[in-house]
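Progress against Task 2.4 (sequence-to-structure conversion) is shown through the following example record, which the project officer requested during the mid-term review.
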Amino acid sequence: MRKYYQYLGLALIMVFSFYYTEKIALIVLNKNPLMQSINEQKKNYEIDFVNAVIEGDYIIPGINGLEVNARESFYWMQELDAFNHYYLVFDQVKPEVSLEDHKDKIIRKGNAKLKQVSIILSEEADISEYLKANQYQASLLVDSNTYEKNSYFEVINNEVNAFESLENMLNLNKENKHICVINESNYDVCLKNKNYLVEPTLTLNSTNYIEVKNGLESGSIILIEEDAKLSDVKLLLKEIKYKNYDLVILSEMVSEENLGE
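Structure tokens generated for the chain above:
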């Protein structure tokens, strides 16, 4: 028993020694002129988070804030021994109202502040070949029969009867973005798996290009149906470029990560 208390005492001494050593190091660090400069300047570069917007069953993702990590920034600037905002290191700050806490809500558009648009392909055909040849980003709905590992496109589980099996395969291949483009068949299983639930903002088919063009806005998620015309897709891509929107994959559209400028 005596040895037990001896070991306990030594352990406590080590813990408190480490704690006070860390505290002393922090005090010394905070007195460093470079660290003081970082602490004085950091508020000029930090960005407030943007809360997600919830309307009934639907949600528009928020945007993380950016907070300067003073200690890591100090280490990056230490060799220069001078403040330089290009070497600032930031931590992500989760919004108070976040998509991550409301995965039961349905995303039907991305955050308009990001000036992004996302395209979802319902199949691989001439449209997908055109996008691939011209290095456009898009997401592709796949099932057990159409899924191919290491596709050019971001793949989205659209399986009905073997959803869990394909989900496991995507996990194994590290390609699962945990997103569902919901329909009557997959809603319950997607909700159960806590995937992000997405309902396209716009759907392009063979007859409605003008309607889609007029409805295009920042944050639009556009589903390209099987009968859509390549000529209409080309016009849509020109419209996206004209409006100065970035074309991003679906996982980037629904993400709240702040990538900065």
